[in-house]
Specification:
This protein is mainly beta and 872 residues long. 14% of the residues lie in helices and 39% in strands. The longest helix has 16 residues.
Length: 872
């Protein structure tokens, strides 16, 4: 049964649409500057069931998360937890836990005083328990049932609990005493025989008045409960167990009045009508089976019945190939009343389940959509308290950093973040044509969709007007940042990809790359010159974005993994200036791990202009197996920092690219991060969570770290620390006292000195000296100078030196593999960073002095880059 139930439950309930109450602000996590949105009604991933109390004041929900990044203990705790909500405010009131297993069903009893929950004990057994709603205490273990899933319902007066076992019996229990009142056995199973169809009862459902019981019958060519189609319904008198009538559906060998599948059926609150979805929406008289009305609703996936039985919410396929919409219908006239909203592609409705019905007036619709409960007014179709977002959010700063754009599956918002608190400027729903979007331009003016398998269109987002129609098959697409180039690609039958490049202005193909063995999505460089893709061994290929011709391949300095039967999962992206390309990922080694645990790969930083790997590090010092992959990452505008978020943890780490050390950790999101973006000045990071919330983080720590009485000399020493967080705190201390800090750093910093050419030539000559000690001393000096002598040494290799000189030069160059710079160099780089953030005229003069150092020194290059960013 568990496999047959979706992870999402749509329900329509009534609670009277009370206005949202003002809520106290959630406390900000450490290092957070502001929070956009809230966690109202946010349960967590994969809500499986949710119910409303009879008085409409409480909602109970449960979920099941089997993600690989969770430990066994975390899965057990999460899947056993029931959350009780205040239906008016969306506040979590308390949590309750079943003894073990995943929760399959919930229902309120005794006017909302008790909450019943069924849970899976094993693959062959389930249990039912009762909780006291006010205290949250477990008050009774009802019984164990010989099936893995039990669905709970209640009588109209709430005094009886009805337990429907999947492919088993239905039993009635006294909600107050816990005594069993009666058990109904399913109709006899017709076993499968060759040339015949086996049939069995899947589940039984009692009408709210307890007068009839409906058995859902499945047909199977294998004679098992796991059927491939629905055969029909059998309706019995609940008192005498006498068969009243049958409703047949089409099986593979027969044609009848209704179609193949029954996605859902439900009783009206008074029990007098039975409503079913079987290709049509059909309403029968519960006792006689007489058809009262029927409506053909194209694209209907499933429905939920309102308490009065006259209205319902119907889930339908949308206008495009992938979208789904939800509309409120008048069931008596068969006409839609209004659309609630569209685009459930990312929310994922479409489950097969029986929808519960409640006794209230039906003014409010409550949906459980993946991770969040959604409340709508049935009359107006307006959502309660949804000025922010109610699905995963992607943030993006404006060019000046004063505005933040946030986008979720359904809407876009614009926030003023220049003041102390973010303020909503405006918001708008997404256009209907955006639901089929394959990709869109960075400026939001163009998008690409595929209305059919052999057609791709380039369209204007504001109007939906088609600019170009391309007659070809493409499953994925990418647009360059300047929206001048379009990449279309698909995977062929041999698991290779073919890339096709198009000129947006003309709509004509400009280049092609065939038989690509990609791992991860291809990307354009920020300036639109290059197209980069990463292959299955981790090498990155750069192509001319116009013609598709290969420019260079970026090779890793060391092999990424040892396994021979491994599956790589890789991602890569460019730095803002386009001169660095960062790659990360993980692999699953099937040869060495029967459990298929993922193993992290290092983050690798390549210099695009030279093709060299210049940095390599992990986001943690130790990576156990089953550690989650990175969900998203972004480079800071100054190319110094990397923000990464791990899948599922909700923790964002700020990494220093030069050293690979963690500068800061931001923990506030629940169940993962969906998007990251640095402000243009690099001082603020926006993180959009899968929990519908956006946080603005203090990257430097100057505004949020506790101020410590540290003298400049101590901070100067900390700048050279191997502890990234300690160095970050030192930078924050300098930023808090800008004038004194610039004066101090001016005295400490000196322009880098160039390498003496005569001494360099002597050291190279000494590599072939007769004395072993002289050769060793020359090697040590060259290693100390590092990248500053790299070009000279590579030129020397081209001059065909002796075997000893070649061996020693190659040894020196091997030491130049990605590694942190010496502490003295690292301290200078961090001091330059502090000066750039301080940004005063005196700090600029200090950087100008540093920029006059030796041209081949890293410190000089960093000072010049800071001055260029300042000018820009």
């Amino acid at each position: 049964m568990k496999k047959r139930l979706s992870r999402l439950l749509l329900l329509i309930v009534a609670l009277g649409f009370a206005p949202s109450h003002a809520r106290s602000a959630e406390p900000l996590p450490p290092r957070a500057l502001a929070q956009i949105g809230d966690h109202r009604f946010y349960h967590g991933p994969w809500i499986t069931c949710a119910v409303l109390s009879p008085d409409g004041k409480r909602i109970a929900s449960a979920a099941s998360n089997d993600s690989d990044y969770l430990t066994t203990a975390e899965k057990d705790a999460y899947n056993r937890t029931i959350v009780l909500w205040d239906a008016a405010t969306g506040e979590r009131l308390r949590e309750m836990r079943v003894p073990q297993g995943d929760i399959s069903s919930l229902t309120f009893l005794l006017n909302g005083k008790r909450l019943a929950a069924s849970y899976q004990i094993s693959e062959e057994k389930s249990g039912v328990v009762l909780f006291d709603v006010e205290s949250g205490e477990l008050v009774r273990h009802l019984d164990c049932f010989p099936k893995d899933t039990a669905i709970l319902r209640h009588s109209a007066d709430g005094r009886q609990l009805w337990v429907s076992e999947w492919c088993g019996s239905v039993s009635a229990w006294d909600a107050a005493t816990g005594k069993q009142l009666r058990r109904w056995m399913p109709p006899p199973t017709i076993p499968y025989k060759k040339g015949q169809i086996g049939k069995s009862a899947v589940q039984g459902v009692l009408s709210p008045d307890g007068k009839v019981i409906v058995w859902e019958i499945s047909g199977s060519s294998m004679g098992s409960c796991a059927s491939t189609w629905m055969d029909g319904l059998r309706v019995h008198d609940a008192t005498t167990n006498k068969l009243l009538y049958e409703k047949k559906f089409r099986d593979p060998n027969q044609e009848s009045e209704h179609n193949q599948l029954t996605w859902s059926f439900a009783f009206t609150c008074d029990g007098k009508r039975l409503v079913a979805d079987c290709d049509k929406l059909v309403v029968w008289d519960s006792i006689t089976g007489k058809e009262r009305l029927t409506h053909k609703i194209p694209g209907m996936i499933r429905f939920a019945l309102a308490p009065n039985g006259r209205r319902g919410v119907i889930e339908e396929t949308g206008m495009g190939r992938r979208s789904i919409r939800l509309r409120l219908w008048d069931l008596e006239s068969g006409k839609p009343l209004r659309e609630l909203f569209s685009d459930f592609e990312n929310i994922g409705l479409g489950c097969r389940t029986v929808m519960p019905v409640y006794r209230d007036d039906g003014k409010t619709l409550v949906f459980a959509a993946n991770s969040t409960l959604r409340l709508f007014d049935a009359a107006s179709g307006m959502e309660r308290g949804a000025l922010g977002h109610r699905s995963p959010v992607t943030p993006r700063f404006s060019v000046d950093g004063r505005t933040l754009f946030t986008t979720c599956a359904e809407r876009r918002c614009r926030w003023n973040v220049a003041g102390k608190e973010p303020n909503l400027i405006d918001h708008e729903p997404k256009n209907s044509w955006e639901l089929e979007c394959l990709t869109q331009s960075a400026d939001g003016q163009l998008f690409v969709d595929a209305p059919s398998e052999q057609c791709v269109r380039v369209r204007a987002k504001s109007t939906g007007h088609v600019l170009h129609t391309l007659s070809l098959h493409a499953s994925q697409a990418a647009l360059s940042v300047d929206a001048k180039r379009l990449l279309l690609y698909y995977e062929n039958s041999e698991n290779y990809c073919n890339f096709q490049l198009y000129d947006i202005s003309t709509g004509k193909k400009s280049g092609e790359i065939k038989n690509v063995t990609q791992s991860g999505e291809p990307i354009f460089s920020p300036d639109g010159r290059f197209l980069a893709w990463i292959d299955r061994v981790g090498d990155i290929h750069l192509h001319d974005a116009a013609t598709g011709k290969i420019v260079r391949t970026l090779h890793s300095t060391r092999r990424l993994h040892r396994g021979n039967e491994s599956i790589l999962h890789l991602r890569h992206f460019f730095s803002p200036d386009g001169d660095r390309l960062i790659a990360s990922g993980y692999f699953i080694d099937y040869a060495e791990s029967s459990s298929r645990d993922s193993v992290h790969l290092p983050i690798r930083v390549f210099q695009v202009s030279t093709g060299r790997e210049i940095a390599r590090f992990f986001t943690k010092d130790v990576y156990p197996s089953n550690t989650p992959s990175l969900s998203c990452s972004v480079c800071s505008p100054d190319n110094r920092l990397l923000a990464v978020a791990e899948e599922g943890s909700g923790v964002v780490r700020i990494l220093e690219i030069a050293s690979g050390k963690v500068r800061a950790e931001f923990a506030g999101h629940r169940h993962g991060v969906h998007g990251l973006d640095f402000s243009p000045d690099g001082k603020t990071l926006a993180s959009g969570g899968k929990d519908n919330v956006v946080y603005l983080w203090d990257v430097t720590g100057a505004k949020t770290l506790p101020a410590k009485e540290a003298n400049p000399a101590a901070c100067w020493n900390d700048l050279a620390s191997d502890d990234g967080k300690r160095a970050g705190e030192a930078i924050a201390s300098f930023l808090r006292k800008p004038e004194a800090s610039v004066a101090f750093l001016k005295e400490k910093l000196r322009p880098a000195k160039g390498v003496d050419e005569k001494r360099l030539r002597q050291w190279i000559t000494d590599l072939d000296d007769d004395s072993f000690e002289t050769r060793e001393a020359a090697s040590r000096e060259l290693i100390r100078l590092g990248e500053r002598v790299e070009d000279a040494l590579r030129r020397e290799l081209k001059n065909r030196p002796t075997l000893e000189v070649r061996r020693r030069i190659e040894n020196v160059l091997s030491k130049l593999e990605p590694s942190p710079p010496p502490p003295e160099t690292l301290r200078t780089l961090r001091a330059i960073e502090a000066l750039e953030h301080i940004g005063t005229p005196e700090a600029r003069r200090c950087l100008e002095a540093m920029s006059k150092g030796a041209a081949d020194a890293r410190e000089t290059r960093e000072a010049k880059a800071a001055l260029r960013r300042w000018t820009k």
